[in-house]
Amino acid sequence: MPKRILQGRVTSDKNEQTVTVLVERRFKHPVLHKIVRSSKKYRAHDESNQFKVGDEVRIVECAPISKTKRWTVLTDDAVSA
Prior knowledge:
By secondary structure, this protein is mainly beta. Helices cover about 5% and strands about 50% of the residues. The protein has a five-stranded mixed beta barrel with strand order 1-2-3-5-4. β1 (about 5-10) and β2 (about 20-30) form a beta hairpin. The longest helix has 5 residues, at about 75-80. About 10% of the residues are buried. The mean pLDDT is about 90. It comes from Paracoccus sediminis. This is Small ribosomal subunit protein uS17.
């Protein structure tokens, strides 16, 4: 099964080797038939602490790293490879 890749914006980088990423998705409401925005925050592993608040990043699923971290930030090197 392929790993999910999500794109979002970094909202917090205060923790060591961890960033909080806000991922927003848009979908059509089944009853109201309008486009609705929904957002969710994910905690992702940032090995080198290179991402700062406001950066657009892509995160990928991984094995659990801690109680709340199940995602890893994709670097530009990993995307091109």
